[in-house]
């Protein structure tokens, strides 16, 4: 059996996003190989509780490298650039631990798994004489600043500067270039990142989204037969999620009183968005649920007609995958992770242009689906194909196949 050394800073069986992604990769890969996992350890108790319940637990060994609580807070406070200084130091510790693990075990492949952001590829690429895989990698795409004007010119300027820094780092950051050159295989989380890898580093990358799903065993029912038409929006109330654009879209649909936008999420801007709905005259079409449990979001998905995903900057959003898992058609932008996994068989995409145009384009698609609900019903069977592509078991099988391929290539 192959033995794989995985570097995954964030692993938690009880979370979504990066920690949940890390956990799912580990436990599903363990059905194909033995995995040694270097992780930070904030959720050691959660990990060991769930590990005891897994039949493949004998194939999983966790190695913990904890950091102080203040560094953990920086990690989850998105936008706190101080974290990267501490994260680099953690990666140096991970390199030392990796060398000790390799001295005591016959490791076949090294896999840099998460965090998925490109700007910190870790240090394990420095270990020679063994295949090294990096990915899925995300974060190379830039945020379209035109959509942030409603947040103020300060936010626009900050994002424009971040875009410049992002591009420079993606092209020239020394450790990124070295890790890219060293890797036996590189995986891009979305098509846009794949294209930038090829353009900046002349490196062919495999395309694989970083997250996945466990498809439900039973067909999920949705109501689309007339009466109220339910749109669902779910996410953090931050500028990149573009709730304001969703509300502006409703201004073009005021003549459809049966249409309701159900909104799940929280954040310091929540009151501001409610006030915006009042000013736009669409408050009567909005149903505000606030911050709710994942179970509640899943329930709302099963009761909705269309998932309205207005984000302009994502890798592969967990909530988007959950919508597909629940056979809920998606309306979104043709960009980032959503542009990769949503097609006309399970939803509808519009191009990034400018906010006013996008509001009209979204409204046009929603109006069509409102009057032609049979189109949404006809999408139902196509979800099975998409779920199979995103199924964690299949993704782990593919990754294990990549491990075998790089090992075989090294032997020749």
UniProtKB/TrEMBL annotation:
Enumerate the InterPro entries for this protein.
Glyco_trans_1 (IPR001296)
Pfam families assigned to the protein according to its UniProt record, in alphabetical order: Glycos_transf_1
Q: What is the organism of origin for this protein?
A: Akkermansia massiliensis
The UniProt entry's coiled-coil ranges are none
Please state every residue range assigned to the domain named Glycosyl transferase family.
220-382
CDD domains assigned to the protein according to its UniProt record, in alphabetical order: GT4_PimA-like (cd03801)
Query: What is this protein identified as?
Result: Glycosyl transferase family 1
Keywords recorded for this protein, A-Z: Glycosyltransferase, Transferase
Any idea which GO molecular function terms this record carries? glycosyltransferase activity
């Amino acid at each position: 059996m192959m033995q794989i050394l995985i570097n995954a800073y964030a692993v938690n069986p009880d979370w979504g996003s990066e920690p949940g992604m890390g956990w799912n990769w580990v436990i599903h890969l363990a059905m194909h190989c033995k995995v040694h996992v270097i992780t930070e350890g904030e959720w050691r108790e959660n990990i060991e509780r769930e590990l005891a319940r897994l039949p493949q637990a004998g194939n999983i060994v966790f190695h913990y490298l904890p950091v102080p609580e203040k560094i953990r807070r920086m990690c989850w406070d998105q936008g706190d650039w101080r974290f990267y200084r501490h994260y680099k130091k953690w990666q140096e510790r991970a390199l030392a631990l990796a060398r000790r693990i390799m001295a005591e075990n016959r490791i076949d492949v090294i896999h840099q798994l998460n965090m998925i952001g490109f700007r910190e590829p870790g240090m394990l690429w420095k270990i020679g004489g063994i295949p090294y895989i990096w990915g899925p990698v995300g974060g190379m795409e830039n945020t379209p600043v035109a959509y942030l004007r409603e947040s103020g010119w300060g936010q626009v300027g900050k994002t424009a500067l971040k875009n410049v820094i992002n591009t420079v780092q993606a092209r020239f950051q020394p450790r990124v270039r070295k890790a890219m050159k060293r890797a036996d295989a590189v995986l891009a989380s979305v098509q846009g990142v794949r294209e930038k890898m090829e353009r900046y580093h002349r490196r062919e990358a495999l395309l694989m989204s970083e997250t996945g799903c466990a498809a439900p065993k039973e067909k999920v029912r949705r109501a689309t037969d007339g009466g109220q038409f339910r749109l669902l929006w779910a996410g953090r109330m931050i500028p990149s999620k573009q709730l304001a654009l969703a509300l502006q879209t409703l201004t073009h649909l005021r003549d459809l009183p049966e249409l309701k936008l159900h909104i799940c999420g929280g954040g310091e801007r929540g009151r501001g968005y409610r006030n915006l709905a009042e000013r736009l005259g669409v408050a009567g079409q909005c149903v505000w649920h606030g911050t709710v449990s994942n179970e509640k979001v899943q329930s709302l998905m099963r009761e909705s007609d269309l998932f309205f995903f207005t984000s302009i900057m994502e890798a592969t959003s967990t909530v988007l995958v959950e919508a597909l898992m629940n056979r809920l058609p998606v309306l979104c932008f043709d960009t980032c992770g959503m542009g990769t996994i949503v097609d006309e068989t399970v939803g509808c995409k519009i191009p990034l242009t400018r906010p006013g145009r996008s509001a009209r384009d979204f409204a046009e698609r929603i109006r069509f689906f409102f009057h032609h609900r049979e189109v949404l019903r006809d999408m139902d069977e196509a979800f099975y194909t998409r779920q199979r592509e995103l199924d964690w078991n299949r993704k782990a099988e593919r990754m294990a196949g990549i491990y075998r391929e790089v090992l075989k290539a090294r032997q020749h």
